UniProtKB/TrEMBL annotation, chain A:
<feature type="domain" description="ABC transmembrane type-1">
    <location>
        <begin position="66"/>
        <end position="260"/>
    </location>
</feature>
<feature type="transmembrane region" description="Helical">
    <location>
        <begin position="101"/>
        <end position="123"/>
    </location>
</feature>
<keyword id="KW-0812">Transmembrane</keyword>
<feature type="transmembrane region" description="Helical">
    <location>
        <begin position="5"/>
        <end position="26"/>
    </location>
</feature>
<feature type="transmembrane region" description="Helical">
    <location>
        <begin position="135"/>
        <end position="156"/>
    </location>
</feature>
<keyword id="KW-1003">Cell membrane</keyword>
<feature type="transmembrane region" description="Helical">
    <location>
        <begin position="177"/>
        <end position="199"/>
    </location>
</feature>
<dbReference type="GO" id="GO:0005886">
    <property type="term" value="C:plasma membrane"/>
</dbReference>
<feature type="transmembrane region" description="Helical">
    <location>
        <begin position="239"/>
        <end position="260"/>
    </location>
</feature>
UniProtKB/TrEMBL annotation, chain B:
<keyword id="KW-0472">Membrane</keyword>
<feature type="compositionally biased region" description="Gly residues">
    <location>
        <begin position="10"/>
        <end position="23"/>
    </location>
</feature>
<keyword id="KW-0813">Transport</keyword>
<keyword id="KW-0812">Transmembrane</keyword>
<feature type="transmembrane region" description="Helical">
    <location>
        <begin position="141"/>
        <end position="161"/>
    </location>
</feature>
<feature type="transmembrane region" description="Helical">
    <location>
        <begin position="296"/>
        <end position="314"/>
    </location>
</feature>
<feature type="transmembrane region" description="Helical">
    <location>
        <begin position="107"/>
        <end position="129"/>
    </location>
</feature>
<feature type="transmembrane region" description="Helical">
    <location>
        <begin position="181"/>
        <end position="209"/>
    </location>
</feature>
<comment type="similarity">
    <text>Belongs to the binding-protein-dependent transport system permease family.</text>
</comment>
Amino acid sequence: MRSKIVTYGVLTVGALAFLFPFYYMVVGSLQTNPDTSIAGAFPHPSNLTTENYTAIDGRINLLQGLANSGIFTGGVILGTLVFGVLAGYALAVLKWRGRSATFALVLLVQVVPFQLLMIPLYVMIARDYGLSDSYLGMILPFFINSTAVVIFRQYFLQLPKELFDAARIDGAGEFRLLWSVALPLVRPALLTAVLLTFIGPWNEFLWPFLITKDATMQPLAVSLANFISNIAASTTNPFGAMMAGAVVLAAPAVALFLIFQRYFTSNDLGSGVKG
Amino acid sequence: MTVDLAGATGRTGGDPGRSGRAGGEADAGKKRRRPFGAQPLGILFSAPYLIFVGVVFAYPVIFAVWMSFHDYFFTAPGAQVDRPFVGLDNYVTALTDPDVWRAFGNVGIFLIINVPLTVVLSIVLATALDRVVRARTFFRVAFYVPYVTASVAVVAVWLFLFSNTGLINNVLGPLAPNPSWLVNSALAMPTIALFVTWKGLGFYILLYLAALQNVQKELYESVAVDGGGRLRQFFSVTVPGVRPATFLVVLLSTITGANLFTEPYLLTSGGGPNGASTSPVLLIYQKGIEQQNPDVAAAIGVVLIIFVLVIALLQRRFVGREES
């Protein structure tokens, strides 16, 4: 019994530490005057306003930013799903020369941090191909995700071999096998992969920050960061406006996660990362 | 459609046994006779990935190394210019720059705080989460929320919480540091390390939860039979049982540390005060793009890759390799 109490105590303290900043973000975004006293965490109704949202929308175009984030994220998810499924299927189900070398490559690519490739990629994509301020330039470095390939491979490996053999004897080609046999069986896995890969581009800052100078092309994370570092100081309630922007940026990812959280399971991710 | 594609791939492979593809799957003997394996379609399926890795990973790595040995500067697209080989000049420039040493030192401080804190907190929280039944979903959701949220968004809250007159200092009262957290050269980097730990912990808890499923339940019982309490069970069964996950967590959090950019860029206005929280990636950005010295930046990048590899190898020695 005592250990139960300790366990729940640890978890509750943890949960408070994780959730409080989010609660405080929402509270801060709704305060007319920032109240940083302890009482300010429990706001007074007379101090509540939506002005901060109007204020930040006046400085950066929230809708445009959301749309750009959406296009960027959508493009990345599309590439991740289509090519990740193909590669994952080939690595799990098909026997071909170079398969183990390819899988070793998939694991290797995951270990080297993307940021280290920043300068050459910037030179290639922004300078040589002239893709700065374009969705294609934003999407390109993330178009296929090695982690997703590993996750898909893991799911396809779990399907029974006999299933494929039976379908092949019936004369089904590999595309048909993949499309009508394998994919329907791993549908929940696809959702997990979409959730996991959604987080990446939606939250990505450095790369779109490097290659978008045009404010109308910037994803919301980039325009909000510019607001925080350059513009916020000139607004009447800088922290309030920052919080409002933060809520708008955080809300879609958090909402998606809350709706689909039961697909966000430890076994899927764990096996995916462990390979 | 499918047959055509299979045929196209098979043609290069010379496919006497295409009809036997289904049966040949587990047949090593047959596989050897086909130069591209039993199902050469796999090559076609993987081709987009392989091309992608070539273009977005392998080529940039080679390009970065090449750049670091040449006098490279930005030009208008298509301009033909001479980029002479300069040997180790860019490396000398990078390694004689005290800012570069400082940035690597800062990563060191970051790792010393972030890695042990991440391992201890995520293992404790995952173990606790694994034990409870009630409100399990609530706790899980609470722990993952920072992980799924953009750094830029939560940075805004931390700026608010840790500002000079922020809530944290209000709570601490006279104990509040002066100068305050993010503008204090001794506390700026530790505060960033704390932020990153908090932000990423959910992901590592998830990894440990998966690892805990593989720990044999009988071991707990045998420790209990020997009179070992919860703590004893934790240290003699749980901790060794999740060792492979610990290795992975240490490796991944090191990589995260080497990638640090957004947090110092936003939390401490570009690595302040006076470079006390500058990270190598931030420096690569400043030297390469702001100051237009991509060759020196590439050299710092190469040094950073070596730094990560050395740390990874050291950790492999100390934490132990993942059993495979």
